[in-house]
User: Fold this.
Amino acid sequence: MPRPHHHVYVVQLADQVWNSARFRSANPDYLLGKPFVYVGMTGLDPDIRFDKHKAGIQANRFVMLYGERLLPALYARYNPMPYQAAREMEVELGIRLRALGFGVWQG
Assistant:
């Protein structure tokens, strides 16, 4: 049986992401002062995945343009996990962070 190697990860996005109408419309309940984040899942190490986003390789536009750093305090305890669990956790983590008032974009 293969060992679980998928990860969820959270990237802090620069405040300028709020200038995007698409980002704002996806976050109607954003609370002023809370972080802006991207939540994703990957079969790679989150550090490597972040570097690929920043280099424009299979990149999410918001991470490529506004990604500042990983926020392992928000995701490290869940990793690694099987593929299906990571897919589900990506959604759950995004929902949880939105409920806390974060501005969230999801992969």
Summary: The two ends are 27 Å apart (CA to CA).
